[in-house]
Structures are given as C-alpha cells and as structure tokens.
Amino acid sequence: MEILYYLATLCLLIFMILATYDGFYLHIYKYELYGREDSKFEHKTHTIRAFLFPLIVWLLFINNDAISFWFAIAFVCIDSLVLAIDAYAESDSRKSIGGLPKWEYILHIFANSFHFASVVLIIATKIQVSEFGVLIHEVSTTTSAQEFFRMVSVNMIPGAIALAFVHLILLLPKGIHIWDTNIKKVKQLFLK
After folding, report:
1. What does the alpha-carbon distance between residue 44 and residue 167 come to, in Å, rounded to a whole number?
2. Are 34 and 170 in contact (CB under 8 A)?
3. The model's pTM
4. Taken in order 102, 104, 108, 114, is the CA torsion positive or negative?
5. Rounded to whole angstroms, how far apart are CA atoms 26 and 106?
6. Closest listed residue to residue 48, CA positions, set 81, 91, 18, 17
7. Is the dihedral of CA 52, 5, 108, 178 positive or negative?
8. SS3 letters for 42-106?
9. What is the mean pLDDT of residues 27-54?
10. Rounded to the nearest 5°, which phi and psi values hold at 143?
11. What is d(CA 138, CA 111) in angstroms, rounded to the nearest whole number?
C-alpha cells in the first residue's frame, strides 16, 4: 500500500505544477480570460473547480473518517461534472483569441489526468472490499509514505485557497480593476 501513497504524491505534485501554470499563468496572467466577454463562463467554471480542489484535498487526502470520505466523493463528482461543462464550453470561450491552442488542450488532459489519478489512488487506500461489500477503511496507524503524502497535501492547501480567491475576486468588476492596475505594474517591472 505504501506505493499507492508515493504514486499519489507524485501525481498530486505534477498536477499542482501543471494546474498552477495553466490556471494562473495562462488563464489569468497571459490570456486574462476573466476579462474577455466570451471567456467569462470558462472563468466561472475554473473558479468553482478552484474552490472544490482544496475541499477535496482536505476531506479525501488529509482527513481519515468516513463522513469526510463521502463528502469528498460528492465533491469529486461535482468537480467532474464542472470539468465536463468547462470542456464542452471551452471552444466557444476562446474564439476571440483564435481558439484553444492544441498544446494547451494537451496540458489540460495531462493536468486533469494527474489530478484524477491522485484521487483514485487515495480512494484505493481508503476502501476495503470484503464479502460484506465495500467498506471505508479508517486509518488508525500511519506509515512514512502516508505522512509524506499528508505533509504534501497540507502544504498545498494555502496556495490552492489563494488561487481560488484570486479567481473569485476576478469575477467582480472592482476586483478586476484592482488586479489589472497592479498586474500592469508587475508586467512593467519584468519588461525593464
């Protein structure tokens, strides 16, 4: 079972790197999807997913009780539905900038694959199949692999919450104004 935690940790780390590059650098910083009329729906779906991610991490990856597990499963199902809606609407969302580049589409596939791989691997550590059915296995003792995975998960939560709030702020006209004003200053620093 140790290998499942190490693989889940690797998948989670790769997902976070890809998701930060895609969700922050490309969507917010480079393409400014929040400010494009045709991309506002896409930004809303990203905002929902940005808030679901830390909830899933906390409830599924960090907590070990059955109630947290079932809430996490519900949030994973909602996240999957929102992802499907986002993917369906994405081609219309990027018309003003020439559509979704193929390389970014591939990036989305890999990021979501690693995200759901980490979820599935952790679900595999938390269920036990017996002659009585599927049981939620509440962990009472921890191994070094579990502790490492938990430490990585706990340390991802602040950044995930910050990114979720950046998405939320950029749904509001005042938030967009403040962001655009300050980000232009940052861009000027890098252009010097």
Report:
1. 8
2. yes
3. 0.90
4. positive
5. 14
6. 81
7. positive
8. HHHHHHHHHHHHHHHHHHHHHCCCHHHHHHHHHHHHHHHHHHHHHHHHHHHHCHHHCCCCHHHHH
9. 94
10. -105, 175
11. 29
Q: What is the pLDDT of residue 139?
A: 65
Amino acid at 149: F
In the chain, DSSP finds a helix count (H) and a strand count (E) of: 6, 2
Are 72 and 53 a contacting pair, CB within 8 Å?
A: no
> Residue 1: which residues within 8 A CB-CB, separation 6 or more?
125, 143, 145
What are 155-167's pLDDT values in tens digits?
A: 999 999 999 999 9
Structure tokens at 32: 């400014």
Size (the chain), residues: 192
For strand 127-130 and strand 133-136, is the pairing parallel, antiparallel, or unpaired?
antiparallel
